[in-house]
Amino acid sequence: MTRTIAQIEEWLESGTRAADPLDHAGELVKAGEEVLENWIVAHGGTPTEETRENFRLLALHRQGARGDPSFNACRETCREIAYHYNLVKLEAAEDRGQDTVAMMRLVTKHLVLFIGGKLKEAGLGDFCCSSRSLRSKPDRKVDYLGV
Amino acid sequence: MTDTIDDRKQRYKKVAYYPGCALEGSAQPYDISTRAVGKHLGLQLEDVKDWNCCGAMEVKNVDPEIQTYLSSRVMSQAKNKNGTDVVMAPCNGCYHNLKKAEYDIANKPKSKETVEKISAKAGHEAYHEGEVETIHALDWIKWGYGEEELRAKIKGGLKGLKVANYYGCMYTRPRHIFPEKGLGGDSESLTKPHYMDDLLAVAGAENVDFPLKTACCGGAHSLSDSDMSTKLVLNILEAAEAAGAEVIATECPTCHSGLEMHQIRALKRLSKDTNVKVVYFTQLLGLAMGMSPRKLGIHANVSKSIPLLKERGIA
User: Is B279 in contact with B303 (CB distance < 8 Å)?
Assistant: First the structure.
């Protein structure tokens, strides 16, 4: 079952984690997916099961960004999570990865805070980098999450 | 633009300078250090004559056409009053807005019409697409002076100071207004910008791997939902520290003041203390070239970095 954003934030704060870096990295990717699922469901969509570049996280981000340019403000954050997962996987084979997974946790937390923030304040990310005005409608070239 | 490195160097040697409101107010240290570094390097700045607000975030979100006009007037002034074809804006907000206006005038007939109409009413030349090139302070130093030439100017340098480079959100987003970026080769990356990293590496810094270099700091919500901004900024500060950074280098006044203010607020509201210092990249470049902290306005930063810089033998 998908956790709420508050539960994920609480989990990240609690320090509870799998002992093995790669297992923990998997937990963080899963947490990122759940955050995106929360966003998509809140906007009337059904979270995709597809993957992009082997990550469902990236497919979910793409789905979440449809019709809302401001959502692209967390695109690089999602890509960094995927990148860090691959890095941990590589390092785990050499019995390393603790520092990388610690950083991955902070990157995941940023995604949680940003999307959690956007669910409270839709304008987050809107006023700065998306250049979308308050009055403009979502991009008509794309489906608005099936709403 | 298909010009050579030398053509670009020539064009950027003397540019119209658009400080915008932040650099004349809360971000004065950025203005002071930009001018000082430019002078030290022999790069000339001439303020855009009778410049106006770029429309910032507020106007853009209420009426984007008016924002386009306001930014277009700055470019028109540079072209017609300063007689230049390059405008340098060190503020990400100004830089972004001028770029957005350029894109809108070139691609949206309604924007073009509005600009022409209001310009005629205001009694000045309307701006037309492609009349000026808008660049950031990073482009100005990287291409107007050159990395190798900068290396020769370094005196003392940054002595391996560990730096996390924070570019903020507006330097690369949205992608469509920055057609010159993300082209590979020596163009700036849209996903992992590196121009500031490049310049500070030349100056002797050790840039740390920092995955949140373009992450949202909640800047525009600083007043409407300060707690959200504080949490986002705190996470950026903690990530910089986890990456081993002693300093976060900035190239945007909004990012800079957000990091400084919310660092203090995080301690007060969330009892979370972080020690990483926040310094403009122009200040770090100036220090690396042997300029004094006072000449670079470092004493006027809210983030108190001078003790660290002295301890490291940089200031």
Answer: yes
pLDDT in tens, B40-88: 999 999 999 999 999 887 777 678 889 999 999 999 999 999 999 999 9
Cβ pairs A/B, distance under 8 A: 106
Hey, what CATH topology would domain A5-127 get? Four Helix Bundle (Hemerythrin (Met), subunit A) (1.20.120)
Residue A68 contacts B, CB cutoff 8 Å: no
Residue B146: inside a domain, yes or no? no
C-alpha distance from B190 to closest chain A C-alpha (Å): 10
Ramachandran assignment for B157, one of left (phi > 0), alpha (psi -120 to 50 degrees), beta (any other): left
Q: Rounded to whole angstroms, what are the CA distances from B38 to B17, B65, B173, B199?
A: 11, 33, 27, 14
Express each pLDDT in B36-50 by its tens digit. 999 999 999 999 999
CA of A66: how far to CAs of A71, A120, B167, B235, in Å?
8, 19, 25, 27
DSSP assignment letter at A19? S
How large is the C-alpha radius of gyration of chain A? 16
- With CB atoms and an 8 Å threshold, state whether A127 touches B220: yes
**Partner residue facing B239 (CB), from A103, A127, A136:** A103
On whether residue B141 sits in a domain, the answer given is: no
Does residue B170 sit in the same domain as residue B92?
A: no
Nearest to B174 among A72, A107, A136 (CB): A72
Contact (CB<8Å) A110/B232: yes
